[in-house]
Fold this sequence. Notes:
By secondary structure, this protein is mainly alpha-helical. Helices cover about 70% and strands about 0% of the residues. It has 4 helices and no strands.
Amino acid sequence: MRTEYLPLQSKITTRMEHLEKDKDHAASTSAANKIQKEIGRLRKQKEEILKFDENLHHYADKKISLDLDDGVKVNYGKFGDLLAEVKAVTGKKQ
Length: 94
């Protein structure tokens, strides 16, 4: 999973750099504002990916072993807040 997100981070950074250049050459204030809004959205996505990558790295370092006989609830719960809807699956808070 981590190797899939690293290229995405660089693509987001490249896109943000291109948008910054476009913003500098925008024909109108509204166009510049629209570009700035897109840059903000991409910045939030990049921050979210970085946070997820750090969390994923933490759990990868734990080298968690899974036992299929334990069932989904137990195995899913071993990954804390890394996976979506932990409470729905395990019945416990994240």
